[in-house]
Amino acid sequence: MHAETQPGTPGLIKLVRMARRGGFSGAYPRAEGADSIQTAALAIRHGLSIDDLAEAIFPYLTTVEGLKLAAQTLIRT
Questions:
Q1: Is 25 helix (H, G, I), strand (E, B) or coil?
Q2: Distance CA 61, CA 28 (A)
Q3: Which run of H or E residues covers position 63?
Q4: Most CB within 10 Å of its CB: which of 8, 12, 14, 47?
Q5: Number of Cβ atoms within 10 Å of the Cβ of 6
Q6: Helices (H), ranges, 1-62
Q7: What is the pLDDT averaged over residues 2-29?
Q8: Residue 32 above 50 pLDDT?
Q9: What confidence category does residue 1 fall into, taking pLDDT thresholds of 50, 70 and 90?
Q10: Which of 41, 40, 35 is nearest to 53 (CA)?
């Protein structure tokens, strides 16, 4: 699935959804300054769900905010 969240902004974030529990088991940010991997690693380690990530508040528009936008896109599908 591909969703453009911010037109004209290069990069993408791929989330790997778990079949059960609404969680996710991987995140693959591909963008400049992909510091969002730190946030994704903490979320996975502490068992956050896709919903938790989608509802989190992050500074707009940073690469970490991109995690939230990717999670919201997964929820809508």
A1: strand
A2: 18
A3: helix 63-76
A4: 12
A5: 12
A6: 36-45, 50-55
A7: 73
A8: yes
A9: very low
A10: 40
Question: Is the per-residue pLDDT at 33 higher than 70?
Answer: no
For 11, list phi and psi in degrees, rounded to 5.
115, 170
* Residue 30 CB coordination number (10 Å): 11
pTM of the full predicted structure? 0.67
Gap between the Cα atoms of 30 and 37, Å rounded: 10
Bridge partner list, 49: 23
62: buried, middle or exposed (CB in 10 Å: 19+, 13-18, 0-12)? middle
Cβ–Cβ under 8 Å, residues 2 and 14: no
* pLDDT for residue 40: 87
pLDDT of amino acid 67? 83
